[in-house]
């Protein structure tokens, strides 16, 4: 049996069916990309990890999409991933920098919907004045932390 066939068999598992229903209910049986609630819906894994069963992913990693949006998401994934890495590298980041960004994202609790956060990040990264101000705040905070450590260690 091929890996794809094995995967499709797993989607028949009652544990996946239960998780799938939880996602549909959370998303109110509506595609979270185009807001369609009439066409056939599917649950999309935002990412895959080796040796993790489809039903063992956290709910936040699953999203309801209509078949059309799911197909586009699947087809565009590789190219979008390449473009993201290319853009980050073109901005001057090295592997060690990218690893730190990844660690920061792992602990990131998104306060708003992903599309709102993405728009905000785009705005921040294209607004040089705002980015400069944020960098100044970062260095002020870093200096304060270092001063507090010096006082504490005495």
Describe the structure.
Strands 1-2 form a two-stranded antiparallel sheet. The chain contains six helices and two strands; from the N terminus they run ααββαααα. It has 154 residues and is mainly alpha-helical. It is elongated. 62% of the residues lie in helices and 6% in strands. It has helices at 3-10, 14-26, 67-90, 95-106, 114-126, 128-153; strands at residues 41-45, 62-66. It has a domain at 111-154.
End-to-end distance: 66 Å
Residues in β-strands, percent: 5-15%
Overall geometry comes to elongated
Rounded mean pLDDT is 89
Main pleated-sheet profile: 2 strands, antiparallel
Strand order of the largest sheet: 1-2
H/I helix tally: 6
The portion of residues assigned to helices is 55-70%
SSE order in H/E notation?
HHEEHHHH
Radius of gyration: 21 Å
Low-pLDDT windows of residues: none
Structural class: mainly alpha
Question: How many beta-strand runs?
Answer: 2
Descriptive labels:
154 residues, two-stranded antiparallel ribbon, 6 helices, 6% strand
Task: Briefly say what this structure is.
62% of the residues lie in helices and 6% in strands. It has 154 residues and is mainly α.
Q: What order do the helices and strands come in, and which of them pair?
A:
Layout: H1 3-10, H2 14-26, E1 41-45, E2 62-66, H3 67-90, H4 95-106, H5 114-126, H6 128-153
Antiparallel strand pairs: 1-2
């Amino acid at each position: 049996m091929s890996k794809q066939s094995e995967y499709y068999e797993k989607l028949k598992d009652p544990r996946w069916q239960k998780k799938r229903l939880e996602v549909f209910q959370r998303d109110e049986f509506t595609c979270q990309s185009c807001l369609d609630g009439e066409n056939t819906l599917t649950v999309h894994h935002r990412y895959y990890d080796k040796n993790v069963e489809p039903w063992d992913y956290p709910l936040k990693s699953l999203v309801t999409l209509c078949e059309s949006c799911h197909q586009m998401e699947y087809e565009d994934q590789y190219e979008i991933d390449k473009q993201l890495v290319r853009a980050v590298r073109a901005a001057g980041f090295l592997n060690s920098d990218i690893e730190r960004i990844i660690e920061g994202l792992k602990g990131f609790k998104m306060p708003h919907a992903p599309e709102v956060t993405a728009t905000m990040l785009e705005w921040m990264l294209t607004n040089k004045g705002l980015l400069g101000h944020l960098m100044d705040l970062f260095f002020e905070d870093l200096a304060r932390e270092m001063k507090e450590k010096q006082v504490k260690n005495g």
